Amino acid sequence: MTKNYCAAPWRGLHIQVDGGISTCCAGEFKLGNINTDTIDFALSNEKLKEVRRSIKSGVLHKEYCKSCINASENKVKSERDWHNSLNEDFDVDTADLDYQFPVIFDARWNNTCNSACVYCLPHFSSKWASLLSERDSKPVKDNVEKIKLFFSNNANKLKTVAMVGGEPLLIKENADLLNLIPADVTIDVISNFSVDVTKSKVFEKLLTRRKVLWHISMENIGERYEYVRQESNWQRVLDNLKILGNEVRNPPEKNDHEIQFFSLYHLFNSTRLCEFKEFASEALSFFPHKFGKGHPSKNIEIVWQNFQSPDAICLDHYGKDVLDECIVELEKYLRTDVLENEGNFFREKISRFKTVSTNTSIDTITKLKVFIDRHETIFKNHGKFKELWPEFASMIDKNL
Questions:
Q1: Residues 229-254, buried b or exposed e (16+ Cβ, 10 A)?
Q2: Of all helices (H) and strands (E), which one includes residue 268?
Q3: pLDDT in tens, 367-379
């Protein structure tokens, strides 16, 4: 089989919050939009056939597949790995240029979200859209029904349905979708887990499912969590983890649910990684039926992801003065119990950080100050950044 292959252009379906259609969430350009095109058209147009031609020749499409190419270069897992792992029967050499069927389905019905993460945008969060008085962009009602119809007509080949968002536990279309999904299909959920799960019909229905993979989105704890994920409540997250923990069993007498923390690596956790790792270990106690006495897990698995935007908190834009502190924390972190993928991710960071010889530029420090001032004005928490991250606040004070 061709080495650089990906099954997604033949067997994936991703619909973005604005109706954009692609075969995976990493696709760098859209193939159509549910508000103006049919799904069948988007999956059979010439742009996607060009992607398939490239992959069949053994080369990932340099534009469409850019995210996975970068992940491969950085030796971290990518969307391609996920799609290929669920399509072991797919043979790119014998596949023609036509779409086959969805094995992975990811419909992000709208941007409904209770949280305003400091790095997020109105496009992905209705909370941000409300705060900034921006109009939501989403598929109209008639086109939502088209998505459901396509899904129900192709449900027999599905292996995984991804529920993302916005915040998927608040999106009512997900509750409808769960009524259509065959029992043997795995549900992948990425949730901030700070909603009231006792009032979520989506959560209620997920608990009845046999196979669910919970990706709890967080990378800080306590007050730092609440600062990064504005409008979210840390205590509610803890309460929700305990509620979920009481439902999850191992061995799977009732269900077969897995739990991970889905975490972005950026300035706001770069000097607090070990603190978060310690919480991931303590969080095992919330799941007594799954991680009970004698279970080999040392902590809830953490899946780290690259962070690129906004520039103000992306470590790629910082210099030796900041990155040296990051390296100290990373080396401490790597002395804990880390999985192979986790270790590869952070060792690559250390290697790259050590090549930086100049200190952080005034331009980057200014961007950070503007970023902090803007958010602390919106959320009326002036001075909180200085209290929570004094090491970076002092850098601003010294240079500006």
A1: bbbbbbeebbbbbeebbebbebeeee
A2: none
A3: 999 999 999 999 9
